[in-house]
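step 4 of 6: structure.
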Amino acid sequence: MKELSILIGGKAGDGIRQAGASIAGLLNEFGYWIFVYEDYPSIIRGGHNFSIIRAAAEKILAHEEKIDILIALDQQTINKHSRRLKKNSLIIFDSNAVKADGAGFALTEMVKKNNLPPIVRNTAVLAVLAAILGVDFFLVEKVIKSSLNKKVEENIAIAREAYDLAKSSEKKFTLSRLDNPARQLMTGNEALAIGAVKGGLEFYAAYPMTPVTAVLHFLAENKKKFNLQVVHAENEIGVIGMAEGAAYAGKRAMVGTSGGGFALMVEHLSLAGQAEIPLVIILGQRPGPATGLPTYTGQGELLFALHAGHGEFPRILIAPGDIDEAIEAARDAQNWAWQFQIPVIILADKHLCESAFPANPDKIPAEVKAAKLWDGQGEYRRYLWTEDGISPLAFPGQVGAIVKSDSYEHDEDGITTEEAEIALKNAEKRIKKAAAIEAELKKKSLVKTYGDQNSQTVLLVWGSTKGAAAEAAERLGCRVVQPLVVHPLPVNELAEKFQGAKKIIGVEGNASGQLCGLVAAAGFKIDAKILKYDGRPFTPAELVEKIKKII
Amino acid sequence: MKELSILIGGKAGDGIRQAGASIAGLLNEFGYWIFVYEDYPSIIRGGHNFSIIRAAAEKILAHEEKIDILIALDQQTINKHSRRLKKNSLIIFDSNAVKADGAGFALTEMVKKNNLPPIVRNTAVLAVLAAILGVDFFLVEKVIKSSLNKKVEENIAIAREAYDLAKSSEKKFTLSRLDNPARQLMTGNEALAIGAVKGGLEFYAAYPMTPVTAVLHFLAENKKKFNLQVVHAENEIGVIGMAEGAAYAGKRAMVGTSGGGFALMVEHLSLAGQAEIPLVIILGQRPGPATGLPTYTGQGELLFALHAGHGEFPRILIAPGDIDEAIEAARDAQNWAWQFQIPVIILADKHLCESAFPANPDKIPAEVKAAKLWDGQGEYRRYLWTEDGISPLAFPGQVGAIVKSDSYEHDEDGITTEEAEIALKNAEKRIKKAAAIEAELKKKSLVKTYGDQNSQTVLLVWGSTKGAAAEAAERLGCRVVQPLVVHPLPVNELAEKFQGAKKIIGVEGNASGQLCGLVAAAGFKIDAKILKYDGRPFTPAELVEKIKKII
Amino acid sequence: MAEAQKNITVADLSTACPNTWCPGCGNFGIEIAVKKAFGELINEEKIKRENLTVVTGIGCHGKIADYLNVNSFYSLHGRSIAPATGIKIARPELSVVAMAGDGDAYGEGLDHLVFAAKRNINLTVIIHDNRVYALTTGQVSPTSPKNFKGKSTPDGSLDKPINPLELMIIAGATFVARAFAGDAEFLREIIKEAVTHQGFAFVEVLQPCFTFFNTYEYYRGGVYHLENHNPADKSAALEKAREWDYSDSAAPKIPLGIFYQVEQPTFDRLMRE
Amino acid sequence: MAEAQKNITVADLSTACPNTWCPGCGNFGIEIAVKKAFGELINEEKIKRENLTVVTGIGCHGKIADYLNVNSFYSLHGRSIAPATGIKIARPELSVVAMAGDGDAYGEGLDHLVFAAKRNINLTVIIHDNRVYALTTGQVSPTSPKNFKGKSTPDGSLDKPINPLELMIIAGATFVARAFAGDAEFLREIIKEAVTHQGFAFVEVLQPCFTFFNTYEYYRGGVYHLENHNPADKSAALEKAREWDYSDSAAPKIPLGIFYQVEQPTFDRLMRE
Ligand SMILES: Cc1ncc(C[n+]2csc(CCOP(=O)(O)OP(=O)(O)O)c2C)c(N)n1
Ligand SMILES: Cc1ncc(C[n+]2csc(CCOP(=O)(O)OP(=O)(O)O)c2C)c(N)n1
Ligand code: SF4
Ligand code: SF4
Ligand SMILES: [Mg+2]
Ligand SMILES: [Mg+2]
């Protein structure tokens, strides 16, 4: 079979995410492309969690509505997801907890009998799945060993028992091994962290917040390996204040948060604009306003990020849509932040941050471009007026340089002034920098396309929506255009990629079509919009339906 | 003479603002329309402060570049402002401190001799001016009495001495008394405060910040009279948190700040969006980014205010351009906030907040429109889904109602939910409210015009820029169009007011033309922009020059 | 107009919202204590049900807003105190109870807590102090012991915890108490005292987080009730507050009860004078 | 590469920026004390000039950033401590001195101050405490005495001041001192001690605001230097810190000097272990 979608569901605390990852690991070992979607409410126990693991022979970047195998650790999973079943789908379940038709096994009893905690059901069910798919047991063992570090033997024993029990079940699906090596599975959060390190990251500060908390966890775990300072600060204002201090002191800094935390950083963002502090901010979008749906996804903060901060100052907004783009985005963000001494915001979202994809981190080279540095000649002036608006940098500790950073308007030395002429020159310095940024960005291709490049129907997308859109376009034979940088918009390249388009359909995870607005303001006509704002990501099948209605 | 412009300058601490107000008071007594512009750096002593008092027979809303009388209490004033003199202008100065040609008097000595502090020079110079303009001394006395409450006698004695000394000077300008009663002079800040009270204000919280600090001072001073609670909180997050608490408890609340403080309020702004809390925010713009030019003016925060806050939610942005509009704006803001249970932002700026104008507060009636209230029937549901998206309000303390406000997505009772269907319904509730707002706003004329209504050249302006633009248009015979509400844009009315326009020129106090962008997005073509971003407001003469270059 | 209900039960004070705290969570103890305390205070006519208004932050603790069938303002993370202050200033007749987590009140929003105490505004603040960021799956908090191995500090945290009782006493709170979520009866009593106290009442609740920082045994081995303690004596209160320093020292002695209580003019009342 | 200058004078540490403090402002005393202390520390080779980095907030005090000819980060209102913390973590070899106003450090940004003390990060913090919001023309601040009649509280403020020394001692600062801007020589010595202290050093400076809260006489009548005080004794330090409560009581006794000093591992060093 060419592709397979498995949904595993249960309560928070049932180890669903862990089980999903193990299933993904199994299918990955078989050489399939993997996409793992996680769906969970903002609670630690109870409620309903599920993962969808989709495996395909071809590259995929999205999960699907419909599934082939439904694995239920509780009854809710059946109730909520039976609508996803196809004619031929199979249900695997714990018959001690769930009533359903299909492959039921007494897993609760099995675990109990072995004196193991209920969460071990997720190991048992993995083994059942493996048996039913005809996967060799040694692969199950391998996956268990690589994912657990406690009670490994006990888990393998349970797995053996469950595997043997299920071995004789009907094999509805047989998974043929593909001729691909297993790939490295990675979440968007890990990719952002690794990309930042490739761009020279030296300092990471954060305050926990879904969906980017795992960036903090990952970097804290690996701080020695990457030679980083990692701080969990008192709150988000402390986070960005510290990062700006570190950047002023010459260290490449990044912070990560989502909308509510970003809101608290807005005053300091404006400081980065005035004082010209290089800084990268990961903004992991989730549905607002306010606390909203904290563990779900959305794309509602493009305009917020674009205009956040009092006063006008240049910035770059990057919107990666898949795992490789996330690595590159975080790397390039560092280099651009330092090249232009500006804040760079990475617009991620829950769907990108927490979904797992096969990744190629080694194919993306590290690249730490030197910033424009002071040559040590004459008197140092932090805000020297230059042709391109970019002043050479020096840092405290450098003999001969007095480095004065200022949140007021200031003269070239960084001394406060309220003179109209100097204020004007500084405003123009910022305008020049914006022009320099546009010029630099033109050197790089920043608009991707998918699907049929000649199609007259174009889906305009950004960020994680790209995954579902690319696949829908593939199926319908239309074209996808995805700007990687959403500000400043790569207008010329967009024009090129739109060439021949008769109908441009914006597809976004928000209620107003925020990118559509920007693209329209740049002079392109948006003919229709497909918007989603219930916290759930698009799937290819859903998009196919919606696009069909329009074209 | 039909109009007269007087500039008085000195150091911070010389009492320039006080003197300017007294001069304005004098001219006001003569029946002139007054406009007072204050220019001062962010320091308490030293530096250079000046006020321009412009008086005219006709209504004016701006000061001018050129001046008729320059009053110098220090040499800097001559150096900085002699460029403003016309052929016929007169310089009045303290000859103990300043070298200049004109009417110099030994004021420092006079004050010293009388054992009074140097600041009393400002009384002496007022008397000199009065003598030279041929104003009766009793008016000088009246103005002194109404503006001072300490050492009144001593000041009157000095004034007498200075008046007698100057009486015999050449009278270059004779001020004829106009047949108008003296008007009430008021700053924009006072107008906003009074307007809010007319709209039912019950609670004001703030943290001091230029240019709106005086709203706090004024309301604190008058809290008993207006029956208000006024709090100077620990910081801006505390300010908006308290105001939201007060509004939840049923009291009409307002907060006032400028860009940096507003930045800190952004997370709570989003809470007002989600929890549907009625709240009015005065955003007194000044040039950013960051601390920028804290005592100067700008219009750089329209887009920031429009998109501030994570997630998408409805809001109204009002941009009053003169003193009467400020009163009305603050009044209407309260009513709209409560009618729609939304945040309403008043976009003021330093030029509006701190300039003084003649005002007619009594002509603008108080108006406290009742919000949609719960009828007490059945079970109370804070977020009841209704046709227009607006749920009836009840407040804690009401027997029978459990009032649950929630920052998460919630059901009609205000209980947290993460269900896609409910999230969608709530997003749609917000969209419905936005529609209801647009419908309501259509009932009111929200676009003003000035100048020649038939001119094909239209100046598009907002906020305080209106004053200078209206006068420039008058002189050039062109038309001014000023939307009072800048979001949601009154598109139909704009179209009406743009009728017949051949050339639309946007005039704004920012570097990008923020309103121009919004108006263009609404489908109108902006042909040219005149932008200013050095912290200084437009003047009519300056605009006339710039417009001439374009048309 | 509806009439106020008599004889309020715990069930009356409960919504239908399904509870999603982990089995064994200390929040259950707080929830039942709060409901009982509220019910009794209403039935004893010390407060009116319709005037009771709860404000919470964001965190596991915050979910209590959904479970309590009373007026509530489920605020932002770190921001329960400022809205509570606003509510009380606006409507002094309301009985306002703010609930917050340790990350919430001592980290994100510490300013507001200190200033509420300084003002001696007539609120009750109840801290669900599990000494961990629980809802975000287990990171160090301001009251975590030094060397805490959370997900953001896998090698152990580097700084010592703050002592919230000491902080509140010096900041100006006029009622400072500590209780243990594992002893809901005692907590209920403390909450009743706190709510009836005229002034800023601070209740620190030691709340084990079953999943990320299970401190039940540690506390059970260490807590004791203050006796022969004069809560009007500030020095004694401070001394008792320092008896345990929120470290993970072996064999701790952890006093519970009312450490400090005095009467002083409240901000909300002074504002209307 | 340029070579480090020897024999630094006060003039070397001064920029050409015109000073705009009011005549008589207490900030002048702080400025000269800071410059002398810095110059001496450099000349005594205790710190390197190029490593000296000053961070300030916004307020009258903040202008010192413009007047000091050293590396500086003129931050936002209330936000000198977090950037200073970031600078120190990023580059532990730098000598970082954060300066802040009372509104700045105790109001707008209190969180950061408390956490910097808690971390015992190796910074010096100097507070220009004029007990008023000066640059915004005279409003009540967190250390203003009760009943302060500022422009936002024309009938008098309603709450008592905080005591910053007490707060910092309990928060974890390992060096806590107070000085008076009217005695620049003593202040200079304290600053030298603070900067050379390994750990979080907090210096509260009583700074009269000539224009909005002229406290010269009040302080002159009350200040005295701590003697026979053991700064390693925390209880004694707290007791001394409480001797004056920041009220406007008549005939106050206001101790100056180093209240508290102990050596403890610093956050920046622990991070690199
Ligand atoms: C501004 C902001 N930052 C971060 C978060 C994410 N967040 C949700 S709960 C929480 C911390 C929870 O810790 P605590 O306050 O101690 O509550 P607990 O879950 O332990 O009860 C955080 C950081 C948020 N919601 N808002
Ligand atoms: C976020 C923010 N809020 C308010 C202000 C306005 N502001 C400038 S200085 C200041 C207070 C000054 O008080 P303090 O910190 O004590 O310094 P001082 O002027 O007394 O030295 C305020 C409120 C600001 N710049 N930024
Ligand atoms: S994570 Fe901890 S605090 Fe949260 S519900 Fe579970 S046990 Fe309670
Ligand atoms: S206002 Fe006060 S603090 Fe500011 S410069 Fe003047 S005297 Fe100094
Ligand atoms: Mg906690
Ligand atoms: Mg101060």
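step 5 of 6: annotate
 - The pocket of thiamine diphosphate (ligand 1) is lined by residues A 207-209, 236, 260-261, 264, 291; C 58-61, 77, 101-104, 128, 130, 132-136, 141 (CB under 6 Å).
 - The interface with chain A takes residues 18-23, 25, 58, 60, 63, 74, 76-78, 107-110, 133-137, 139-140, 142, 151-154, 211 of chain C (CB under 8 Å).
step 6 of 6: archive
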